[in-house]
Amino acid sequence: MATITGTFVNDNLVGTTDSDLINGLEGDDGLFGFNGDDWLDGGTGNDVLYGESGNDILLGGEGHDWLDGGTGNDVLYGESGNDILLGGEGHDWLDGGTGNDVLYGESGNDILLGGEGHDWLDGGTGNDVLYGESGNDILLGFNGHDWLDGGTGNDVLYGESGNDILLGGEGHDWLDGGIGNDVLYGSTSSVSGTPEYDILTGGEGTDIFALGDIFDAYYQGLGFAEITDFNSHEGDQILVFGNASDYSLDAVSDGISIKYQGDLIGFVANTTDVILSDDFIFV
C-alpha cells in the first residue's frame, strides 16, 4: 500500500493503481483514490475526495467537504462541517457527522446516517436504511423497499416508491409513504415529555398507520397523529394497542377522532368511513 501525504497548503493528490493511504493534511485539497481499496483523509480544510473504483474509506475531517465513493462498497464519514456525501455505485455506508449535511446513497442498498444537524438524506435506488438522527431532517427513500427513521427533531419523511417503513421519532413529523404498501409510525413511544403532533399520509397502496404497539398506545396526553388519506377500500388499517373496548370513534365535521380510554390519540381526516371492527389491528 502506497502512502501519499499532502502539505500545509492546497494539494491535489492522486493514488496509484493499487490500494493507497492518502492524507490531505491542511489546506483545501483534492484527493483521488483511483484504482484499489483506498483510505482517503481530507484533514482540515474544505476538501474534495473521490474514491473512484474499489471499496474505499473516505474521511472528510474538519471543513465543508465533498465526498464521492465512486464504484464499490464504500464508507464515507463527513465528520465536522456541512458536507456532501455521494455513495455512488455499490452498497455504501454514509455518515454525515456534525453539521448540516446532504447524503445521496445513489445505487445499491445503502445505510445513511445524518448525525447532528439539519440533514438531507436521499437513499437513491436499492433497499436503503436512512437515519436522520438529531436535527430537523428530510429523508427520501426513492426507489426500493426502504426504512426511514427521522430520529429526534421535526422531520419530513418520504418513502416514495416501494414498500417502506417510516418512523418519525421524537418531534412534530410529516410522513408520506408514497407508492407501495407502507407502514407509518409518527411516534414510537407513549411518553416523550412534550406534546407531539404528527401528520401521516399513506399515499397509493395498502398502508398501515401505527398509533400504538404491543406495549402501549402512543400520544397519550401528549398530542395526536393526523391521518390524511385513510382509505378502507384500498385496505388501509390502523394499528393500535389493546382491545376494541379501549377505543371510541367520534365523528366531527371533517373526519373521525380516535380516543384511547377517553384520550385523543388520532384523527382521521376527510372521511367518516372508519370502523373499529374492520379497520383496526389490535395488538
Structure description:
The structure is a single chain. With 283 residues, the protein is mainly β. The protein has one domain. The protein is 1% helix and 37% strand. The chain is built from 1 helix and 29 strands. It has a 15-stranded mixed sheet, with no helix packed on it. The longest helix has 4 residues, at 276-279. The mean pLDDT is 97.
Structural class: mainly beta
> Into how many domains do the coordinates divide?
1
CA radius of gyration: 22 Å
Share of β-strand residues: 35-45%
Q: Low-confidence parts, pLDDT < 50 over ≥5 residues?
A: none
Number of helices: 1
Apparent shape:
elongated
The helix/strand series, from N terminus to C terminus, equals EEEEEEEEEEEEEEEEEEEEEEEEEEEEHE
Features:
single chain; 283 residues; mainly beta; 15-stranded mixed β-sheet; 14-stranded parallel β-sheet; elongated
Write a compact overview of the structure shown:
This protein has 283 residues and is mainly beta. The protein has one helix at residues 276-279, and strands spanning 2-5, 12-14, 20-23, 30-32, 39-41, 48-50, 57-59, 66-68, 75-77, 84-86, 93-95, 102-104, 111-113, 120-122, 129-131, 138-140, 147-149, 156-158, 165-167, 174-176, 183-185, 196-201, 208-210, 223-227, 237-240, 247-252, 255-260, 263-269, 280-282.
Per-chain topology:
Layout: E1 2-5, E2 12-14, E3 20-23, E4 30-32, E5 39-41, E6 48-50, E7 57-59, E8 66-68, E9 75-77, E10 84-86, E11 93-95, E12 102-104, E13 111-113, E14 120-122, E15 129-131, E16 138-140, E17 147-149, E18 156-158, E19 165-167, E20 174-176, E21 183-185, E22 196-201, E23 208-210, E24 223-227, E25 237-240, E26 247-252, E27 255-260, E28 263-269, H1 276-279, E29 280-282
Parallel strand pairs: 1-3, 2-4, 3-5, 4-6, 5-7, 6-8, 7-9, 8-10, 9-11, 10-12, 11-13, 12-14, 13-15, 14-16, 15-17, 16-18, 17-19, 18-20, 19-21, 20-22, 21-23, 22-24, 23-25, 24-28, 25-29
Antiparallel strand pairs: 26-27, 27-28
